[in-house]
Amino acid sequence: MMASFLRQTYGQRIHNHNNPAAKLLLETMERKKTNLAVSVDVTKSKDFLAIIDAVGPFVCLIKTHVDIIEDFDQLLIKQLQDFSVKHDFVIFEDRKFADIGNTVALQYSSGVHKIASWSHITNAHPVPGPSIISGLSSIGLPLGRGLLLLTEMSTKGTLAVGSYTEEAVRMARAHRDFVIGFIAQRSMQGIGIQADTVDGDDFLVLTPGVGLDAKGDSMGQQYRTPRQVILESGCDVIIVGRGIYGKDPSFVDGIRVQAKRYMEAGWEAYQERVSS
Ligand code: S5P
Fold this sequence. Notes:
Keywords: Decarboxylase, Lyase, Pyrimidine biosynthesis. The chain is an alpha/beta fold.
């Protein structure tokens, strides 16, 4: 049976969550009236910071891949955190952990990037089984962090379908304190439980593979519109990368225009959803 989370506002849904990172994201979305997340996939600190400062006013969340930054240092993290305060957004390092519990705990806490110390949210592939959640939560839970499981992917030919997706949602249901939601292409409500059972778990769904002008790229990425993602598929956050900063990360005026455009498209689709 379909519960009614899809028709609740982001503000109302804050009360369905205990995890501080989930609450922070919903509060930010409600306060700034945006369900846009920007994925800042560039290799130079200068471009990384310029894009974040340009899109900051329009986003609820900034998604990072810090391992692609060539001139990474701890100062960059301080600058990212300062922007997160200045512009009021949540930070999500898209690390896609995928190893045994002991290894992911080390990768999350240590090394050059020390992700757990600054990223409110991170994500993991469910492929190792529940031990990946225990490993990451041993580090992240005491810090008030949240985890997203990748239950589906946006790419052509993805193996994350069918019973893999269902089992991953079941894993999440068993770890509600730390798993706040999914990277997926549609609402995961009712998945992994019997059809006649009421689903009381309000998971957040953050969705990449969003573009208004292109249908995909030459490497298997597939794009859908904010309307398809938020209204038709019941996802909560649109994640947009190249659709916003294109091929020229230094053209900040153009980036601002695109960010506003995606923000408005995402919010309109959400308003139509909650008022339907
Ligand atoms: O299924 C997925 C999961 C993720 S997290 N498909 C994705 O594209 N992503 C990430 O979203 C990907 O790593 C990239 O950072 C972003 C999409 O970027 P874009 O430029 O194609 O919008």
